[in-house]
Amino acid sequence: MARRIPLTYPTLMGLPVGVLSDLRPGQVCVLGAAEATPYDPAEASHSAGAPGAIRAASRLFAGQLKQHDFDLGATLVTPDRPIEAIGIDVGDVRTRPGDAKGNRARIRDAVAQALTAGAVPLVLGGDDSVPIPVIAGFAGTGDVTVVQVDAHVDWADVIRGEAQGYGSPMRRASELPHVTGMVQIGIRGLGSGEAWQHHDARGWGSRLVGSREWHRRGADAVLDEHLPAGARVVLSIDLDGLDPAVFPAVAMPTPGGLTYEDVLDLMHGLAARGTLAGAVLAEYVPERDDALRGSALVAARIAAVAVGLMAGAKQPS
């Protein structure tokens, strides 16, 4: 019998390496997706290097996971919950710019397989076309509410002849029968297209929460009004939804937006009011980061808190 050679590669905060068939109920499944549907099939996504860069940044705190995490409000790794029980990192879905249809199918199927195993998917993108197949992967698992953080509404229909690109993820999500609600947070500035896109979003039932409203009212008031009680939430974070003073390494930096602490308040609020059924981070552009990869570290910390919340880490009583 041939000896199985263990796979090794940098994983998110040192999670064990695994494959989808290794997943167990309750675990978090981390997977990367460099791109889904680039507008130019001859060029890699501007965020193609993001999954690896986020994983690399997470190594800065991977050795401290047995310490109390004030952002999570709990200790992630404990004697009763070793890191092996939290989840596994299955690496990246195989993608290439010239195979958009195949990319979407492989991302969708990987998410679906994780959900079938009873795991919770955390997808490291990749450009903002990646959420389209991620959300599609929840088909057959029950209704979901999509909560998006983004500077832009993303309700374009067809751009440059392409309906599945990074300007259209929320319109495409709205067409999925299992998506029964949508809350979009952090919208501001220009770049969200003509007014008909916003009218379409509101007409479908999406709750658009501008950045100024978010800061004026706060997380609790916004979520109490707009999030259905007990919702199963798929969280889609386009990282240009964050203030570029906090996260400058994006393709379309826009003044204003959420702070890191705002994103923490949002994630904790979602987990307290419903079930965080999955999450995807998109639109980090490593080539625009500083020499110390400060934006990658912010993304890695957001991912770490998401893992803790989805794994059920709790504040000790």
CATH top level is Alpha Beta
Strand content: 15-25%
Q: Could you state the CATH homologous superfamily?
A: Ureohydrolase domain
Average of the residue pLDDT scores:
95
Which architecture name does CATH use?
3-Layer(aba) Sandwich
Largest sheet: 8 strands, parallel
Written overview of the protein:
The chain is of the alpha/beta class. The protein has one domain: Arginase, Chain A, CATH 3.40.800. The chain has ten helices and ten strands. The protein has helices at 50-58, 83-86, 100-116, 131-136, 169-174, 195-204, 211-217, 219-226, 260-273, 294-310, and strands at residues 28-33, 68-69, 74-75, 87-92, 120-125, 144-149, 179-187, 207-210, 232-238, 275-282. Strands 4-1-5-10-9-6-7-8 form an eight-stranded parallel β-sheet, sandwiched between helices. The protein has a two-stranded antiparallel sheet with strand order 2-3. Helix 1 (50-58) packs across helix 10 (294-310) and helix 9 packs parallel to helix 10. The longest helix is centred in the middle third of the chain and has 17 residues, at 100-116. It is globular, with a radius of gyration of 18 Å.
What's the helix and strand layout?
Blueprint (H helix, E strand, L loop, with lengths): L27 E6 L16 H9 L9 E2 L4 E2 L7 H4 E6 L7 H17 L3 E6 L5 H6 L7 E6 L19 H6 L4 E9 L7 H10 L2 E4 H7 L1 H8 L5 E7 L21 H14 L1 E8 L11 H17 L7
Parallel strand pairs: 1-4, 1-5, 5-10, 6-7, 6-9, 7-8, 9-10
Antiparallel strand pairs: 2-3
